Amino acid sequence: MFTLQECILIKIRPNKVKVTNLKTGESLESGDNLIFGSERLLMTDMDEPLSTLKDLINQLTQSTLIHFRRTLILNPYHPNISEFSEVEKRSFRDMAEFLGARIVRFKFGKEISINSLNNKNLDRETST
Predict the structure, then answer these.
(1) CA dist., res. 44 & res. 38, Å (int)
(2) What is the reported pLDDT for 118?
(3) For site-directed labelling of 27, which of 6, 19, 85, 115 has its Cα 20 to 30 A away?
(4) How far is CA 42 from each of CA 30, 68, 77, 88, 128, rounded to the nearest angstrom?
(5) pLDDT, tens digit, for every residue of 41-96?
């Protein structure tokens, strides 16, 4: 079995998630009809976002013969939340680990693009 590095960007919004495989540049997003949270919390129930993310990630990484060492970069954003609590951050981390992440990174506060991510930028601008 092969072990390859896999890096995935997950943009989480109040009613949509977008998953991008940074190596291939392929991306998928959920429909606009999802409601994950409330006015104060980006996610109130982890079951639906987790199921949605698992499906999207599986569609982008369909090889079953290769074991990936997965890094997930989470970019949560909610217009009414300027700072996420430690409990919310822990929930995001747990969700990422459940999705197979060995490394979990966060980028809070603004939307990030694929072009803004490179190894130097990633280590400097994200926190675990």
Answers:
(1) 7
(2) 56
(3) 85
(4) 16, 28, 7, 9, 19
(5) 777 777 878 888 888 888 887 565 666 688 999 998 888 887 888 888 888 899 99
Q: What is the mean pLDDT of residues 101-109?
A: 87
* Residue 70 φ/ψ, nearest 5 degrees: -95, 130
How many residues would you count in the chain?
128
Which amino acid would we find at residue 9? L
Give residue 75's identity as a one-letter amino acid code: N
Structure tokens at 92: 């995001």
| pLDDT surpasses 70 at 28 | yes
Q: Which residues pair with 29 in a beta bridge?
A: 18
What are 124's two structure tokens? 């400097």
Three-state helix/strand/coil letters over 44-101: CCCHHHHHHHHHHHHHHCCCCCEEEEEEEEEEECCCCCCCCCHHHHHHHHHHHHHCCE
